Amino acid sequence: MGISMIWAMAQNGVIGRDNSLPWRLPRDMAFFKEQTLGKTVLMGRKTWESFGGKSLPNRRNVVLTRDRHYEAEGAEVIHSLEEGFRLAAEEELMVIGGAEIYSLFWAYADRLIVTRIEETFAGDTTFPELDWSDWHVVSETPGIKDDRNPYDYRFVIYERTT
């Protein structure tokens, strides 16, 4: 079925700070939920733990970790890219982070769903440096800025060109 990756990113490439998001954008969280509901979401251990070790409702939660003894109540635990590829053969696999997991799956992704926030933020995690020349924009929607969503942002969907 394929591999999609979804994330929000500041202008300076920041995607996280202290295992959390450095911004608050409720409309982005709603967009994330809309894009992932009913699908399989694959994440690394740190991302899983950033959710408090709780599964995202109405989604098949999969945690990829090197730790063979790791347990994640409410999620399946896998230990290799190959196990992730088997899941992607059955259904659309939504890779949701973190940075190391994005790097592992980048070469195999078919679609990217990116919230581009038009601000810079301090953070300790940035999206990996990547070659964007293999991707083209298939849709771009400006986000609605208001009291609860104080930044300019846009939802951009890319597909691989090659």
Automatic annotation (TrEMBL):
One of its GO terms (molecular function) is dihydrofolate reductase activity. Its EC number is 1.5.1.3. It catalyses: (6S)-5,6,7,8-tetrahydrofolate + NADP(+) = 7,8-dihydrofolate + NADPH + H(+). It comes from the Bacteria. Residues 2-160 form the DHFR domain. Pfam families: DHFR_1 (PF00186). Pathway: Cofactor biosynthesis; tetrahydrofolate biosynthesis; 5,6,7,8-tetrahydrofolate from 7,8-dihydrofolate: step 1/1. PROSITE patterns: DHFR_1, DHFR_2. InterPro entries: DHFR, DHFR-like_dom_sf, DHFR_CS, DHFR_dom. Key enzyme in folate metabolism. Catalyzes an essential reaction for de novo glycine and purine synthesis, and for DNA precursor synthesis. Belongs to the dihydrofolate reductase family. This is Dihydrofolate reductase.
